[in-house]
Amino acid sequence: MSKLRTLGAVAVLVTTGVVWAWAAQGSSIAPLTGTDYAEIMNLYARYNQGSDFQDPELFLSAFAEDATIVRADGSSITGMDALEKEREERYRNGRTGDSGLRHRTGSQLITPTPQGATGVAYYVLLDVTTSPATIRFTGNYADDFVKTANGWKILKRTINRDAPRD
């Protein structure tokens, strides 16, 4: 009977050690501070308002130099030069100011990762030039964030659109 107890005690100790080692390995991800969360939340506002008010500087300030945007149609844009060019084309003829659209972002879930953080947020794109305002699109953003010398930035944004259901 004592061999059985010893074997049981060893099994408990080994299991405890494995669980402890696994938990310690997972704790190598640094937690985000309140300031980190606030800076990341501000990126959503920079993206939204930069787009809505056709302000390329504000829009681009949300992104890392080597950022990628993957659009809902699967096409993508990578790097600051390409992002700047895309904004120039979008706001051609010097068009600036209120676009009449409003990006509304909510339910952000931000999670620390070894590389920085990830986030998922719902969005609604409203056309406020109609009365009442109409919904153009809904969906979510799946984001990878990185902390740079200039603060947190979006490294990759994947834009997912909700599909209508019958």
Q: Report helical residue fraction.
A: 25-40%
For the termini, the CA-CA separation is 66 Å
Count of helical stretches: 4
Order of helices and strands: HHHEEHEEEE
Explain this structure to me?
The chain is an alpha+beta fold and about 170 residues long. The protein has helices at about 1-25, 35-50, 55-60, 80-90, and strands spanning about 65-70, 75-80, 100-115, 115-125, 135-150, 150-160. The protein has a 6-stranded mixed β-sheet with strand order 2-1-6-5-4-3, covered by helices on one side. Strand 3 and strand 4 (about 115-125) form a beta hairpin. The radius of gyration is 23 Å and the shape is globular. The model is unreliable at about 5-25 (pLDDT under 50).
